[in-house]
Every structure is written in C-alpha cells, then in structure tokens.
Write a structure and sequence with these properties.
With 273 residues, the chain is α+β, with helices and mostly antiparallel strands. Helix content is 36%, strand content 23%.
Length: 273
C-alpha cells in the first residue's frame, strides 16, 4: 500500500469506530493507531469481521472477547439493559462494526467525490494477523483500555477502483448498462425526515393549543431518520444550509433494515385504515 493511502484509511477507521461506539454508549471514545506496538498476543475468543465496500479496499477487524464483551455490555447498559449475555454483546459489537463501515463509506464518498457504499459485512474464521495488520487502542477516558487489530485487503494502492459487487451491479447481460435503470434515475421520490414519534389519546390531542409541547420518543442527541417511501434509508444529524434545514448523513441503513421498516410501516398504515 502506498504511504499516502495508508494514513487516510487509518484515519477513516479511527474516526468512524470512535463515533460509532460513542454514539451508542454516550461516552467519549478514543480510537488511535498504536505506533508503539511491536507484537500483539493472540486475542481470546476473537471476532474477526470482514467488511467489503463497493470499491477497494476492504478491511478486517479482529477483536478479542475483552473488547467486544466490554463494549457490548457498556452499550446495552446505556440502553437500560442490565442482564447481558455474551451473545448480546457479540451482536452489539457487530452492529457497531456495521455503523463503523457506514462511517468509513461516508468519509470515502466525501474524499473521492463519488458514492461509496458498505456492502454486507460478516464474521469470518479467525486468522493469525500478519505483517500488514496494524494494532489500535481504544479508550473511554477511564483507566480501562483495549486493543484490536485491523488489516486491509484488495487493491491497497488504488482505493476507488470498483469492487466486484459494484461492477456486477453496473453490467447487464453482455456488458451493456441497463437502460431500464437509467429511466428509473429520473423518478422523483418524496423524502421525509423524522425527528421522532409518540402516541396521544384523543382527549390529549383535543387539548393541544399554541405553545403546547409534544414530547417525542427520541433524545436530542439521537440521529434523525431519513425516510423514503416509508422505509428508513439513513440516519443523520440536523444542519443548517443557507438558512434552510438539512440532514448530514452519518449512517446508511442495511437492506434488511430497510425491508423491515417498510413492512412495519405498511402494517401500521393498515391498522389505521
């Protein structure tokens, strides 16, 4: 990998992972490359996560139980869940990695001026970290600290090249770009930004007047949802652009989540009819 590329990829990962853990735990999290690390002992009960993107390179993260169990427990306790199992911590860590991937993709999109998306990541068989793996440290501001290792695969020196998944999606049949898809690009879709929801009894609705405050089911620090055709496609933070409200996208929803929210909203609408 070229020296000019590696620091950029490291920065993407440091920033996205610290933001993902921080947003879910409510703590100030620091993630940094441990330049003093010469050798890291094998992680106990490690989770090795393979994360591809629509362009090269992809990355792998290997974290031991001390990290994923601790972060999972802190996250779930912040959500008010006291009884936590290893499986709960494991799935929570995987969700954090999904959000990290979305953050890395967003950073690459901004830097490359072209859309980069995170494909579906997956846990893979653990492997012994090689020379290309780097050691990172995580701190939550207390005396505790954890380590993990990360490595990149693919065309390391040429980030921005289409990955296999993206290349397949752009080609149809004998290599011609789909004309049907080109037509769909002109279709306008309504976009709604949701700050939260709540339920009120009819008597409470009738009491509403100027100055009334309706409390929503979302904290001020929680991201808002970007909804297209009743499906949550992304989450982000509210910004002001030239005097108008806008939303900076921080996380893209997975395909499974888009399908799940779409079905739930359809059922909700059906119940109202």
């Amino acid at each position: 990998m070229k020296d000019t590329t590696q620091p950029q990829l490291i920065h993407y990962l440091e920033t996205a992972l610290s933001q993902a853990i921080g947003s879910m735990t409510g703590r100030s999290i620091s993630v940094a490359l441990d330049r003093s690390a010469t050798e890291t002992p094998p992680f106990e009960n490690a989770i090795t996560w393979q994360q591809p993107f629509s362009i090269s390179p992809s990355f792998r993260i290997s974290a031991g139980r001390d990290l994923w169990a601790a972060v999972g427990r802190i996250t779930l306790e912040a959500a008010g869940i006291d009884e936590v199992t290893d499986e709960d911590c494991r799935s929570t860590w995987q969700e954090i990695l999904n959000q990290t991937a979305a953050g890395v993709a967003a950073a690459m999109t901004a830097d490359l001026a072209r859309e980069v998306t995170a494909s579906k990541g997956a846990e893979v068989d653990a492997e012994a970290p090689g020379p290309a793996w780097l050691t990172f440290s995580i701190s939550d501001g207390s005396d505790r600290g954890w380590s993990f290792q990360a490595g990149w695969t693919g065309e390391m020196a040429n980030p921005g090249e289409p990955g296999p998944e993206q290349a397949r999606s752009l080609v149809v049949g004998n290599g011609a770009v789909s004309k049907t898809f080109d037509l769909l690009l002109e279709v306008a879709l309504p976009i709604v930004v949701s700050f939260g929801r709540t339920s009120l009894q009819i008597r409470e609705v009738l009491k509403l007047n100027t100055g009334s405050i309706v409390e929503l089911d979302r904290f001020v620090t929680d991201p808002v949802e970007v909804i297209v055709n009743d499906c949550v496609i992304a989450r982000g933070e509210v910004v002001v652009v030239d005097g108008n409200y806008g939303v900076r996208i921080n996380q893209l929803a997975s395909r499974e989540e888009r399908l799940r929210t779409g079905i739930a909203e359809s059922a909700h609408k059906g119940n109202r009819l």
